[in-house]
Amino acid sequence: SVSAESMAPSLDKDYVKVIIPKTQEQRERIETSIENNFLFKNLDEEQYKDVIDAMVEKRVLNQEAIIKQGGIGDFFYVVETGTFDVYVSKNGVQDKVHNYGPGGSFGELALMYNAPRAATVVATSDSVLWALDRVTFRRILMENTSRKRKMYESFLEEVPILVSLEPYERHKIADALESAIYEDGQLVIKQGDIGNNFFLIESGDARVTKIDEGGIEHELPGLKKGDYFGELALLNNKPRAVNITAKGRLKVATLGKKAFVRLLGPIVDILKRNSDNYETITRNVHQ
Ligand code: 1OR
To answer: Which atom of ligand 1 is nearest to the CA of 110?
Structure first.
């Protein structure tokens, strides 16, 4: 077929694997550092090994700029220990836009898009990083990443709750999303359960019901494409407040609790404010 993917040059036989010798102890430190990083998910055994083989340890001192905006992209970095601030200069004004701690990663943009570095990244403590060269990053990690970003890009742009985010913040959400499908009548969230996921509706509709103290189930306003649910239990650490059921075939994109907290931090206030409306809706149902 003439899909975009099959047009990508197949260099499979031409590359030389990068192997930086390392101790078992170093391997274990890498594994811990990438454990919760979505970019490393879904790798097969060989890809996982190749990535670890290619990584090189890099120690940086407090205040060192490991990446300079406008520079050439050579490495992608994963933070083992330490902290980093990210600055973007625009029209001569420099703004702090982000920060990273252990398990975080940065420097993928220039490698993915063959672009100059989009930001400056400065250590704010003595730190240990694992660096992955451009060729290995593109060969192994990029396919995963760009496929997901492309897949979710237009959808995420249209999700009302996410419009206030920067495009780059939506990219990071795309990296972390997992799709799931529920058939008609299937329960997605059960009232009273512990909440572990946040959901965005990619397509289809969902029914929302609430069982009152007397055991009677009340129908609440339903949900449609672009709507979200499941945030309440994550915001408040409370059991699920309602039942959510697929009405016809329902496709959702989900975010785990950790990713929810990390990626939706900038809009938590909006989510909380919106959730105040539920109280009104629920109160009306009980009247
Ligand atoms: P890079 O290869 O361009 C700098 O090198 C890295 O900083 C970049 O990849 C990202 O991994 C990371 N905009 C651009 N790059 C950012 C941003 C960012 N935050 C972290 N990086 N933001 C948009 C600012 C208008 C901040 C979004 C929260």
So the answer is: 2
C-alpha 86 – ligand 1 centre gap (Å): 7
* Ramachandran angles phi, psi of 200, nearest 5°: -120, 140
Domains of the chain: 4-148 (2.60.120.10), 158-286 (2.60.120.10)
Q: What is the mean pLDDT of the chain?
A: 90
CA–CA gap between residue 79 and residue 121 (Å, rounded): 12
For the CA of 115, the nearest atom of ligand 1: 3
CB 173 within 8 A of CB 255: yes
Q: Rounded distance, CA 186 to CA 188, Å?
A: 6
Q: Which of 86, 111, 165 to mutate to test the pocket of ligand 1 (most atoms within 8 A of CB)?
A: 86
Q: How many helices (H) and strands (E) does the chain have?
A: 10, 14
Number of CB atoms found within 10 A of residue 256's CB: 17
pLDDT score recorded for residue 147: 83
Model ipTM? 0.95
Angle separating helix axes 142-157 and 167-176, nearest 10 degrees: 120
Q: Which residue type sits at 139? A: R
- At 9, the pLDDT band (50, 70, 90 cuts) reads very low
Torsional class of 29: left (φ above 0), alpha (ψ -120 to 50), beta (otherwise)? alpha
**Coil, helix or strand for 247?**
strand
CB 180 within 8 A of CB 151: no
Ligand 1, atom 12: nearest CA belongs to which residue?
A: 106
Which segments of 196-265 does DSSP mark as H helices, in order?
231-236, 257-263
Q: What is the pLDDT of residues 264-279, one digit of tens each?
A: 888 888 888 888 777 6
Instruction: Tell me how far apart the alpha carbons of residues 41 and 87 are, in angstroms, rounded to a whole number.
Output: 28
